[in-house]
Amino acid sequence: LFLGSMQSAEAKSLVRSIRKISPDIFNIEYTALRDLVPLASGNFGAVYGGYYKKNRVAVKQLLDVGDEQMHKYLQREIETLRNIHHPNIVEFLGVCEHHSGLYIVTEFISGGDLRKILKNSSIELTWDARILLATQICSAINHLHSEQIVHRDLKSHNILVTDDGVAKVCDFGFSRKLPRKKGPRTLSLCGTDQWMAPEILMDDPYNESADVFSFAMVLTELVTRQKPPERNASDMYAFNVDEFRRQCPRDTPRALVNIIIRCANLTPSKRPALRDVLSKLEALGSSSKTIELKRASLDAKQHGNTI
User: Fold this and answer.
1) Domain that holds residue 174
2) 211-259: per-residue pLDDT in tens?
3) Within a 13 Å sphere around the CA of 108, how many CA atoms are in the beta-carbon half?
4) Which CATH number goes with the domain that contains 229?
5) Which residues, at least 6 apart from 296, have a Cβ–Cβ distance to it below 8 Å?
6) What family does the Swiss-Prot or TrEMBL record give for this protein (predicted)?
7) How many structural domains are present in the chain?
């Protein structure tokens, strides 16, 4: 796991900056991390799986301690994760400082990311399962917004799913705390093009409604199991509703399609708040389960059984 010298001026500056977040932020000893094996590479470092205090953990290692731009993103991720606790956001455990590098330690999610799951045609996803995942993701981002935080890089790659189907939003390097004052802000361009809101691509001021658009793109993925459709500058990067409708499976719940279209509105102020979207998704999930129960009851009666 050798990374490079932690004795450089840049590395020492990074450690000082992180320590300002909290004096006890470096709460994990390197020797307490066991059986580390490489898993993947993320935006800001390599990711390892291992164990800490008998618990399976994910360990993210910063790749370049000399990159000051990376310092900013790392600090944002640590600050966001340590202050946010939600069942659908990956749980932060702590930070480890070692001569080989800096490590962020979080809970380990064994099921992989949502993009990989959607690409795997052998994995069946019922509409109930998709609506439940959508509800969980919406709940996580709505919680961030209630804390004045925008994620700014919401996409299926940054949503992990446990083996029992629980969504966990991760990768907070682009997250940003917004001031209490409402309204769009002039912020830096960041994110991933196919999921990015039009106002960001157009380099216009934006706020948490940009996350709402990105959430709509994740919903299109849940519906079609494909990446969001490409958008064009000539159309101001607007979401093509007609094209999306053509891609939808015949049995797609109409209410889910309507949610996506509203969240993907070209005009940020016309997009709904995620708290309202969450209520609609919860209602949609409840109604779909009621339908399934009714069908099960009918099937049982037809076969002479009672429920």
Assistant:
1) 114-292
2) 999 999 999 999 999 999 889 999 999 999 999 999 999 999 999 999 9
3) 19
4) 1.10.510.10
5) 307
6) Belongs to the protein kinase superfamily. TKL Ser/Thr protein kinase family.
7) 2
Alpha-carbon distance of 303 to 175, in angstroms, equals 54
> DSSP assignment, residue 90?
P
Show the beta-strand stretches assigned E in the chain.
Answer: 33-41, 45-52, 55-62, 92-98, 101-107, 149-150, 159-161, 167-169, 176-177
The answer on 101 and 30 residing in a single domain is yes
Please check whether residues 60 and 188 belong to one and the same domain. no
Residue 169, beta-bridge partner list? 89, 159
Q: How far apart are the first and last CA of the chain?
A: 57
Q: Which residue has the tokens 């919406």?
A: 138
Examine the domain organization and report whether 26 and 160 are in the same domain: no
Using a pLDDT cut of 90, give the percent of the chain over it: 59
Alpha-helical runs (H) found in 120-273: 127-146, 198-201, 209-224, 241-247, 254-263
Each residue's pLDDT tens digit, 83-103 = 899 999 999 999 988 887 788
The helix/strand count (H/E) of the chain reads as 9, 9
Please tell me the predicted confidence (pLDDT) of residue 67: 63
Q: Which of 113, 153, 171, 211 is catalytic?
A: 153
Look at the chain and count its residues.
307
153 carries an active-site annotation: yes
Token readout for 262 is: 């509203």
Residue 24 lies inside a defined structural domain of this protein: yes
Instruction: Note whether residue 26 is domain-resident.
Output: yes
Looking at the structure, tell me whether residues 182 and 264 fall in a common domain: yes
**3-state class (DSSP) for residue 121:** coil
Residue 2 has pLDDT above 80, yes or no: no
